[in-house]
Amino acid sequence: MKNVIQQKNAIAVIIFILLTYGCANGHVSYPDPDIRIESMENTVRYLTEINPSRSYDHLDSMTRSANYISQKFEEYGLKPKEQEFVVLGKTYVNILASVGPLERSRLIVGAHYDVCDNQPGADDNASAIAGLLEIARFVKKHESELPYRVDFVAYALEEPPFFGTMHMGSYVHAEFLHKNNVNVKGMICLEMIGFFTDKDDSQSYPSAILRLFYPSKGNFIGVVSNFGRSSFAAQIAKHMGATSVGVRTLKAPSFVTGVDFSDHRNYWKFGYDAVMITDTAFYRNLNYHQETDIMNTLDFVKMQEVIKGICWSILNMI
């Protein structure tokens, strides 16, 4: 089986598309999004200090996390709603909030708020929730400039034992969109966006051949997509390239290990364009799913640049 996986990864390397984007051409709007590091720090601190951890088997902690996210959406002028779903006799919730023309096509921006087992989950995935909230605050301020609707979603149950099943909060949400024939422009998944390092050989990859094309230092942000036919991923990467953080893209089939390891996978299942914005998780961050995934391992300055790029992408999406 190992050889089969290696062969598949080698095939993927032959057919993947590698792109490093700079600034977008044409008329673009890059206002200062005023991404607040202190706000992101406060969110990460709050979520990582919830005890017991915000895992599926600690429903009270999951509820506290969801309530915090709802409170922040309200604070930023959005009107959050709960999408309830039942798993193993327990009720979990996705938190949704919308900005922009309600009847237009939708851009989904999402991140999961649960953790795996008993660990603080600073990078996985408090970093992404902190970013999601800052993006929502920016987009609300620029609501009048949006030609489409932006739905922000904080998902429950991304982590094991429900990962890859119909019980993931993102599956529930994507399925709802599909069943209701919602016109989805695309989906941006935030998955671990806070760990960066300039150490040599700090970055690994699903195939050794990728080292020929990508940096050996884990100091960039990744934009991961599958072989969709639209320019969705390219637009996002180009606008993110206008920031000071390095941007690298991977366009590859889902059998490449790690390519579908988050909530975007469920939007792919229903035929929607989706990308994952990530620091590459366990390919870089050795604290992945460990008790050492704590707040002081995150680089909030680089996180600020990542979120700035996503804000610009949303504002300039065509």
Explain the overall architecture.
The chain has 318 residues and is α/β, with parallel strands linked by helices. It has one domain: Zn peptidases (Aminopeptidase, 3-Layer(aba) Sandwich). 33% of the residues lie in helices and 19% in strands. It contains eight helices and nine strands. The protein has helices spanning 2-15, 37-48, 59-75, 122-141, 169-179, 232-240, 264-269, 300-316, and strands at residues 17-19, 81-87, 90-99, 106-112, 149-155, 184-191, 220-225, 246-251, 274-278. A nine-stranded mixed β-sheet has the order 1-8-7-9-6-4-5-3-2, sandwiched between helices. Helix 2 packs across helix 4, helix 4 crosses helix 8 (300-316) and helix 6 (232-240) crosses helix 8. The radius of gyration is 18 Å and the shape is globular. Mean pLDDT is 92; it is low at 1-25.
* CATH class placement: Alpha Beta
Structure summary, number of beta strands: 9
Strand arrangement within the widest β-sheet reads 1-8-7-9-6-4-5-3-2
**Apparent shape:** globular
How can the largest sheet be summarized?
Answer: 9 strands, mixed
Instruction: Return the average pLDDT rounded to an integer.
Output: 92
Helicity, as a percent range: 25-40%
Strand-pairing-aware structural class: alpha/beta
Topology:
Elements (H helix, E strand, L loop, with lengths): L1 H14 L1 E3 L17 H12 L10 H17 L5 E7 L2 E10 L6 E7 L9 H20 L7 E7 L13 H11 L4 E8 L28 E6 L6 H9 L5 E6 L12 H6 L4 E5 L21 H17 L2
Parallel strand pairs: 4-5, 4-6, 6-9, 7-8
Antiparallel strand pairs: 1-8, 2-3, 3-5, 7-9
Helix pairs in contact: 2-4, 4-8, 6-8
